């Protein structure tokens, strides 16, 4: 059986053998597994990427220069293994049952929610995050300021908070949860907000009070709500397509910076990395772009929080043959982050490099747009924990350790930026 025939056949049986969902129920992933598949050639990579065209049976979780992480439905296991044996690639399962991880996460969230308080022993919903933000703004009215990027496709407000202790500070912008299923990002962003306002630690006080912080806890609000209410594994926005029954665009491929170049995004509306029908087709990304553009003279550093892989990625995403003029500085700053994180007792290691150099071509991303089009010379994607044991379903017990790593990493990153002269007022 050819690969294409195999995919077509599977489309007819997925509802019987794979994920299931009722009208008012969350999608389940019983006996879905995640495989780590190593390849050596571009032909092998192209072959493997064809699997994810059948989204009901295959989801791409992660991709590097020589490896894909694929989530596979139970009905597709045997034929998948048969197909990859013909291509001489190696595949190893590292998550045996995705639903078990989701159930454990749900149980931990439920247990932590019983006292009704907001905290970082669970993953909070958008409504909980926004209610908590309202409390923060009321408690610290002279230090914090609410800002609104705009409205999502489904009409939700995309909110941010500015923390500023004094005038004439350099600015740091943090974007979080642009990909809906990456819950550790908004959990880390809210923890940082709390630390900047409440910590008495000297390092934190210096970091908080000598920089202005612009933090968007959840950018992809529609997708984030959908992950809580319907499909934990959803990545994209929720705007329907005019040319397909598939819904949503990869918002981190939708900026107008080398959009759709170098095979850095897919033109298939069903793909997880679909770049959209045109740049800024997603109202969330247009809103983000408008806000950053109007405030770019106040922003010295932009950090985009993602998961997973433990990476610091700098521009460029459209080529691995050219590098930004300040690439050496970008690597020095990234090294400072990685070294600081590794020095903690957890011993977590981060790799760093350009997006195209370390991972793959990725065009239309936040950091490239900020760097190329807005002149933000220090711009990184930070891929948080882990490297695949849990992937996107990182247990809540990791929230505070991950956030602590982010804090010391960002402190070291900012210190190095100061040393290299990137925090001068524009």
Descriptive notes:
It is a single chain. This protein folds into 2 domains: 3-96, Metallocarboxypeptidase-like (Alpha-Beta Plaits), CATH 3.30.70.340; 105-420, Zn peptidases (Aminopeptidase, 3-Layer(aba) Sandwich). The chain is 38% helix and 17% strand. The protein has helices at 3-11, 14-17, 42-51, 77-85, 98-113, 126-139, 183-198, 202-209, 221-229, 283-295, 327-342, 355-359, 366-374, 399-420, and strands at 33-38, 58-63, 67-72, 90-95, 144-151, 157-163, 171-175, 212-216, 301-307, 311-314, 351-354, 378-384. It has an 8-stranded mixed β-sheet with strand order 5-6-8-7-9-12-10-11, with helices on both faces. Helix 11 (327-342) links the parallel strand 10 and strand 11 (351-354). Helix 7 packs across helix 14 and helix 11 packs antiparallel against helix 14 (399-420). Residues 4-18 have low confidence and may be disordered.
């Amino acid at each position: 059986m050819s690969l294409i025939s195999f995919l077509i056949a599977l489309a007819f049986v997925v509802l019987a053998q794979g994920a299931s969902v009722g009208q008012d129920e969350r999608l389940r992933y019983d006996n879905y597994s995640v495989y780590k598949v190593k390849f050596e050639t571009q032909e092998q990579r192209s072959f493997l990427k064809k699997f994810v065209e059948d989204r009901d049976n295959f989801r791409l979780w992660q991709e590097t220069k020589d490896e894909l992480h694929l989530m596979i439905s139970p009905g597709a296991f045997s034929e998948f293994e048969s197909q990859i044996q013909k291509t001489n690639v190696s595949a190893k399962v590292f998550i045996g049952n995705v639903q078990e991880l989701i159930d454990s996460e749900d149980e931990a969230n439920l247990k932590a929610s019983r006292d009704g308080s907001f905290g970082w022993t669970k993953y909070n919903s958008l409504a909980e995050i926004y209610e908590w933000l309202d409390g923060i703004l009321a408690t610290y009215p002279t230090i914090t300021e609410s800002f609104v990027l705009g409205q999502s496709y489904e009409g939700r407000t995309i909110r941010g908070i500015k923390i500023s202790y004094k005038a004439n500070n350099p600015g740091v912008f943090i974007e979080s949860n642009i990909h809906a299923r990456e819950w550790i990002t908004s959990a880390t962003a809210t923890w940082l907000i709390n630390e900047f306002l409440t910590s008495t630690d000297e390092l934190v006080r210096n970091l908080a009070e000598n920089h202005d912080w612009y933090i968007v806890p959840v950018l992809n609000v529609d997708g984030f709500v959908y992950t809580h209410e319907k499909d934990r594994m959803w990545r994209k926005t929720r705007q329907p397509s005019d040319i397909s029954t598939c819904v949503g665009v990869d918002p981190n491929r939708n900026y107008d910076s080398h959009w759709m170049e170098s095979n850095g995004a897919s033109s298939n509306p069903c793909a997880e990395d679909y770049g959209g029908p045109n740049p800024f087709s997603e109202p969330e990304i247009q809103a983000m772009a408008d806000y950053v553009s109007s405030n770019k003279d106040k922003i010295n550093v932009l950090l985009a929080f993602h998961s997973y892989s433990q990476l610091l990625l700098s521009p460029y995403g459209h080529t691995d043959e050219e590098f930004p003029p300040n690439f050496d500085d970008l690597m020095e700053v990234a090294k400072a982050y990685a070294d600081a994180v590794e020095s903690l007792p957890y011993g977590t290691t981060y790799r760093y490099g350009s997006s195209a150099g370390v991972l793959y071509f990725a065009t239309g991303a936040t950091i490239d747009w900020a760097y190329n089009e807005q002149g933000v010379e220090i711009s990184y994607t930070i891929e948080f924990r882990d490297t695949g044991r849990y992937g996107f379903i990182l247990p809540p017990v990791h929230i505070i350790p991950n956030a602590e790593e982010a804090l010391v990493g960002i402190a070291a990153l900012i210190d190095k930026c100061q040393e290299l002269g990137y925090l001068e007022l524009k």
